[in-house]
Amino acid sequence: MSDASSLKVFLNPRSIAVIGASRTPGKIGYEVVKNLINYGYKGKIYPVNPNATEVLGLKAYPSVLSIPDEVDVAVVTVPAQLVPQVIEESGRKGVKVAVVITAGFSEVGNVELEEKIVKIARSYGMRILGPNIFGYVYTPANINATFGPTEVVKGGIGFITQSGALGIALMGWTILHEIGLSAIFSMGNMADIDVVEVSELLAEDPYTKVVAIYLEGIKPGKGREFIERMSKVTQKKPVVVIKAGVSERGAKAVASHTGSLAGADALYEAAFKQAGIIRARTLLELFNIARGFALQPVPKGENTVIITNGGGAGVLATDTAELNGVKLLEPSQELMDKFRQTMPWFGSPKNPVDLTGQAVVDNYIKALKVAVEAPEIDNIVIIYCRTAVLDPMELAKAIVEFYKENNVTKTTVVSMIGGADVEQAIKHLNRNSIPAYPTPEEAVFVLSRMLMYKRYLERIKKAS
Amino acid sequence: MKSPREIIKTALEEGRNKLLEHEAFEIAKYYGIPVPEGTLVRSSKEAYDVADSIGYPAVVKVVSPDIVHKSDVGGVKLNLKSREEVAKAVEEMEKTIPLKAPGARIVGYIVYRMMPPGLEVIVGGIRDGVFGPAVMFGLGGIFVEVLKDVTFRIAPISYEDALEMINEIKAYRILEGYRGQPPVDKKALADIIVKLGNMMLDLEEIESVDLNPVIAYPSGAVAVDVRILLKKPGSTQH
């Protein structure tokens, strides 16, 4: 059960059959085939439809059994009552994993049907993702086996979602905000494969830098196992989780004082801490933090410097740093003297380093050079407020160039505050591996979570 | 001395899901959780005989499966300074409790050393349907009641996790000494947290434990009240 290697086929299938492939646009069986083709999957695609000879230009087969080739992955979109037969045939065919998109199982009380398909799959050693899901995506192999948007942006975030509707909506949202993903796994009812197993799979995937999870809950009695296995995942990759819903606990434990204080949320909080999981409180936080991990190295030290062209934004960043345990370096006189050289006479070389509203590209790059060269500085927060004297794209390009030329490995986050042209500059930074955010609080908050992970890794190292 | 399993078995056989004080103390002690020196006596004569070995000041409490609020029926006597006072306390309870709580079964009277004041904290254990046994830590009084300034970990709990719990409550500075108070022994508290976790893992019949309060000192900590609830017979973990 806990063998992630049986799931590796998700990442490099030689062939994918779509059972229930359709010729009708808008139907799930059509959209999945279309996404597989249009996203550029290089393996074989086999539409299965007994009433068609061709789907989207591909030869269709009446049954998975009539495909004259091995089939690694079967995406199932037929109505629920037909799923057992399809699973049976897929098992006989030697399919390794079935991605059961079809709904109408335990989520509507149809527990028996769900147990039945799992039993059939197990008898053939086949694994099931779902049922009741929107499919899966693995961008390094150009696999988009979903009925969601097509052009998923490639990147380092492995996204696992227990919610279908929200997950599919977030696919579109990540495209809009150019949030790069390595994988998307829709988990649905988790009749067989669960969140932990997919996390274990992604922990071993070289393209996945961070695992981001939308979690609704852990099954009864599985909490301890979740902690034990996820703590092994977090030793390899950072894991960020948003936990939805504080489910009602039975009244059974409320007879004791402790029981009355133990909301389910307090226990999830504890479990996440013990497993080394970083908790996000909002979807925005989830993807902000994940983007930080995907684009930047884990911090090597605690000492952080803020470089800004606006006093107010610097103070907000400082407040967020203080609230979230980000240590701002007290610069030495020597360091202050160096920063002083990078700014107009009325700037401030303390931390935040205030280059003033007159700052142009040259001031930023000089200050960055000082920060990168100073051995006592571990992390850099760059803040820019839109001014008349400095074009945001010009600054973004200069920052990207500076980081590439100097091979900077100090963990860096950027905040750019302003209008439409600033949004373009933020995108430019994100495309070039520098996580940028529209507010100073978001940037510093992301850094605070990256520092938490650094401390966790250090603690693990010390303990072993 | 009976083993924890024997104590639990007896209680369940007698249809009790709340352990009696001396039973709870014994189980806690078995798992290395420090509790006050004490013993169960059946009469004022027995109380007179054992009082010196426990030391003073002493506390006497009635032990009864039927009496929930002991103070209300005169079932708690504090700060007893001699064997005469201890014996007299038991004698009075023998007379008055049957009048105030007619029909209540009286198992005996627990006599134990009254612990000096210190910082009161709470360590609790619960069993959750998803996570199994978990342990809570918080400061006593308003910190728990009003501010709900508590933190949890799932058992088994490492010593480092336990120390982290102690350091992450909002009021942790109080533990480090304030207004001239000395800092308390965090290691002793962490030790209790770890041991309670182990106890909950070991004894699956236990539904919840309240060590409330645990009195923390500059050196050491003692659980002066131990409440153990068992799962109701026939109820199963979902």
Written description of the protein model:
Chain A has 464 residues and is of the alpha/beta class. Chain A folds into 2 domains: 4-292, Succinyl-CoA synthetase domains (Rossmann fold, 3-Layer(aba) Sandwich); 298-462, Succinyl-CoA synthetase domains (Rossmann fold, 3-Layer(aba) Sandwich), CATH 3.40.50.261. Helices cover 40% and strands 18% of the residues of chain A. Chain A has 15 helices and 19 strands. In chain A, α5 runs parallel beside α6 (223-236). Chain B starts with a helix and ends in an 8-residue tail after the last strand. Helices cover 35% and strands 26% of the residues of chain B. Chain B has 8 helices and 10 strands. In chain B, strands 5, 6, 7, 8, 9 and 10 form a 6-stranded antiparallel β-sheet that branches. A 4-stranded antiparallel β-sheet of chain B has the order 1-4-2-3, covered by helices on one side. Chain B has 2 domains: 37-113, ATP-grasp fold, A domain (Dna Ligase, domain 1), CATH 3.30.1490; 119-230, D-amino Acid Aminotransferase, Chain A, domain 1, CATH 3.30.470.20. In chain B, a hairpin with a 4-residue loop joins β8 (206-216) and β9 (221-223). The longest helix of chain B has 18 residues, at 83-100. Classes of the chains: A alpha/beta (464), B alpha+beta (238). Chain A binds chain B through residues 217-224, 227, 249-250, 252-253, 255-259, 261-262, 264, 266-267, 269-271, 273-274, 459, 463, and chain B through 122, 124-132, 134, 136, 138, 144, 148, 150-154, 158, 160-161, 164, 207-210, 212, 227, 229, 235, 237-238.
